[in-house]
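Retry 2 of 3 after timeout on previous attempt. Resubmitting structure tokens to design endpoint.
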């Protein structure tokens, strides 16, 4: 990641860390209510809930990688971008709030997000069979300080209305695709540009979804597949 990006983010991260605790509660509730009305409408009649998974909610940490095989015809197309294991079609980052709630921040475009900007969905929405055929959680070997940086970056990007990169170009920092969003936060937080080894296609590097978890810095915590109704 370019040095200019680090210099640009440093004061923003410091400011975010000092202000987050003061405004967090009101802003989280307001942003969720305003930005996720359509998602809430889709899952309001969904009988599935997190307690059906044998994994305690309070075990999820900020910085945990969230993966899913999404519903919809386009998900199988996106899965093919992974060169080693075509298993998941979408990725996000878990952010735990002081009140214990967990949100998943993720870059998304299409029918479920026509604004093509960074979304923040509840864990229930992210994992619901309305949006996911299956999902998994992986954990990176991050320090508490690195998790704090990721927390601040995700919130800053959300407030800045980061948009989806339709060109899938790693050189742009004002637009990102889903796996690029995860990759760049990890590189910035760890100060290690090789933290996630990249794939290459036609001489051009890109972040495959499988690159995010098929590496020595991550370990699987949970994988769950929703049972299909007969």
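Retry 2 succeeded. Sequence:
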């Amino acid at each position: 990641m370019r040095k200019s990006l680090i210099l640009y983010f440093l004061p923003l991260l410091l400011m975010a860390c000092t202000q987050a605790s003061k405004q967090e509660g009101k802003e989280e509730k307001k942003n969720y209510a305003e930005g996720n009305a359509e998602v809430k409408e889709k899952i309001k009649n969904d009988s599935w809930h997190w307690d059906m998974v044998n994994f305690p909610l309070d075990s999820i940490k900020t910085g945990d990688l969230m993966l899913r095989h999404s519903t919809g015809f386009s998900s199988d197309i996106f899965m093919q971008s992974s060169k080693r294991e075509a298993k998941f079609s979408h990725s996000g980052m878990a952010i735990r709030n002081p009140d214990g709630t967990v949100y998943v921040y993720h870059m998304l475009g299409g029918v479920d997000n026509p604004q093509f900007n960074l979304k923040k969905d509840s864990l229930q929405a992210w994992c619901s069979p309305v949006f996911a055929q299956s999902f998994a959680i992986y954990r990176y070997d991050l320090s508490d300080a690195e998790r704090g940086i990721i927390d601040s970056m995700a919130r800053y990007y959300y407030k800045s209305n980061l948009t989806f990169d339709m060109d899938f170009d790693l050189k742009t920092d004002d637009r990102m695709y889903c796996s690029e969003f995860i990759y760049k936060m990890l590189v910035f937080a760890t100060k290690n540009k090789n933290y996630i080894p990249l794939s290459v296609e036609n001489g051009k590097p890109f972040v495959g979804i499988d690159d995010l978890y098929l590496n020595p810095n991550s370990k699987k915590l949970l994988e769950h597949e929703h049972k299909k109704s007969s």
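Attempt log closed. The domain at 3-33+61-225 is CATH 3.90.1720.10 (endopeptidase fold (from Nostoc punctiforme)).
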